[in-house]
Design brief:
- Two copies of one chain form a homodimer.
- Helices cover about 25% and strands about 25% of the residues of chain A.
- The first copy, chain A, is of the alpha/beta class.
- Chain A is globular, with a radius of gyration of 20 Å.
């Protein structure tokens, strides 16, 4: 009998999340029922939203239940199938969770999707051609509504979502400016991803300094902002927004550890007649086909660049996840499971 | 020669505005040039936006210049005309400023508009059938997008804008809930204006208490919020918003005296996927005809109720304005000039 190694959530964080909140559990791979498919997970995706699920608080999603496998997106290969639509060897993307093997009920819509790895690497379906990519696409295209010649700013610019936002903005004729932590990330954002500029927030510890740095990077002001971070960065951007600017609120990772981080200058929202909208991409499934078509095409053509931080083995997932929350990853954070 | 009494802004407030910032000035009524119209102002409108103009700060509008007549909307009667479109006796609405007589260049579009006082009182063109009414209409209809059965909340509910917001929401089949200061205003909001409930913020000095009071008044949560006030009230509303709620940001009067008032819980904007948009109605002239048609019709039919606080004489304008900023008015604040 094959053993399946899993990571369970065993306690909820008080403040910062820690390795103690997780536990490695071994269990046998179950026998399949009719309609089920057994997937060997090749990659697990680690994403900031998971931190929110660890809390037992009102949010857009149910909390992650204790003593169960942590949820998470995965790509992998079908090893056994009792569903006519799948056969061993098929490459699939799904929500397999933090574990080596996942049993999926293939009759449930949206549980499993076959993917083509001829021109697109399997792991990209967890990044630029997956949930992070569509997140970038939706927030930028539908909420920031960039027009050629405008300036678009994105925080966490070297990350899985931010890197796509800037490259899509460039493709639309915008000036793309990133915000990232550290010289390496900023260099990557401008030199490899092709952003016009990148502000290193670690060089600007206070609002005034960050505001000035953004002003220098955005001489025409900011028309669209894709927010992944919150806190001081959001205030510094607000103070540089042009009239009728649009803000897509995708994440506020800086507040995920529980302490709310205020917006210090909300009156700017009125003075500059800004529109700000929070969203989660799984509620906008209608855009996925259009978004994946553009993203997949760009990746296949080598026009959408990305970087991955890959941890090895399921046991490394908790530490890799805690590092992600602190910005230690560089590019899309994955755990390789094979 | 007729004397024109005016109020000038002579200094900018440091913190709270005060009577010292204003000065009563007498000057002769000028002789008309071709195309000009002389209007005897009957009513001056006092509005919160004027406080913003007193500051020399980046905002959506130019600051009010020092040592000139304070800007302001007026209604009055033409007493002399050198423009073919106007004759003595015509009732007009315009931006006549804080003064008894105004000279308008009638060739400039939007400077002057003739109004019909057969079924609508002249002063209403400064309130429910004027800028405050259209402000309410735009923010509610275009930004809050209320649907029958939803709950709409408005702050400063007994004021010129808020009172219209709630009545328009009721006309669209919504539950309308006001926030106002004091038992008299709350009684007026529910008993005379027909709102379903009104929360007296003066009874709830802290966020927790106000949040609970709003929850009681809005058992189904809040779908649309029309914001005139900001500060703690905005946070209390945010914590009661339903998923996909819409917020029209019209005013943040609580922060007009200079000190920024943070939003304490911005992460709710993301968690509840809210849309928030700041606006000023003068940038949306395209909606005025449609809005004025509905508002004028409702006033003429007695279906849109309003109340006015009327100060007498131009010299009383500064004190009446300072009272408005502190919520001392009850209904639309006017100054009667005849």
């Amino acid at each position: 009998m094959t053993t399946n190694r899993q990571i369970h959530l065993v306690s909820r964080p008080q403040g910062e999340a820690s390795a103690d909140n997780f536990k490695l559990v071994e269990s046998p791979v179950p026998t399949l029922a009719d309609g089920q498919v057994l997937v060997r997970n090749h990659y697990l995706s680690l994403d900031p939203y998971m931190r929110g699920r660890m809390n037992d608080a009102k949010s857009y999603a149910q909390p992650q239940p204790l003593n169960q496998v942590m949820i998470g997106g995965t790509v992998g290969e079908v090893v056994e199938s009792r569903h006519a639509g799948y056969k061993a060897g098929d490459k699939v993307v799904g929500m397999g969770g933090w574990q080596e093997y996942a049993v999926a009920d293939a009759n449930q819509p949206g549980m499993l999707r076959k993917v083509d790895t001829t021109h697109i690497p399997l792991s990209a379906y967890l990044g630029s051609v997956g949930m992070p990519g569509v997140t970038a696409w939706y927030g930028l295209v539908k909420l920031c509504e960039p027009k050629a010649g405008e300036t678009v700013v994105v925080s966490a610019a070297s990350g899985a979502v931010g890197s796509v936002v800037g490259q899509l903005a460039k493709a639309r004729g915008c000036r793309a400016v990133g915000i990232a932590g550290g010289a390496d990330k900023c260099r990557y954002v401008t030199e490899e991803l092709g952003f016009d500029a990148c502000v290193d927030y670690k060089l600007h510890g206070d609002l005034k300094s960050l505001k000035t740095a953004l002003k220098d990077a955005c001489p025409q002001g900011i028309d669209g902002y894709f927010e992944n971070v919150g806190g001081t960065i959001l205030d510094a951007v607000l103070l540089n927004m042009n009239a009728f600017g649009r803000i897509a609120l995708c994440g506020m990772i800086s507040g995920y550890n529980g302490q709310p981080i205020p917006i210090q200058y909300p009156q700017v929202l009125l003075q500059s007649r800004l529109r700000l909208e929070g969203f989660i991409v799984s509620e906008h499934m209608e855009v996925w086909p259009e978004a994946l078509k553009e993203l997949g095409g760009m990746v296949a053509m080598g026009k959408l660049k990305f970087r991955e931080s890959v941890a090895q083995g399921i046991a490394s997932a908790p530490e890799a996840f805690l590092g992600l929350l602190k910005g230690k990853n560089f590019g899309k954070q994955l755990v390789k499971l094979v």
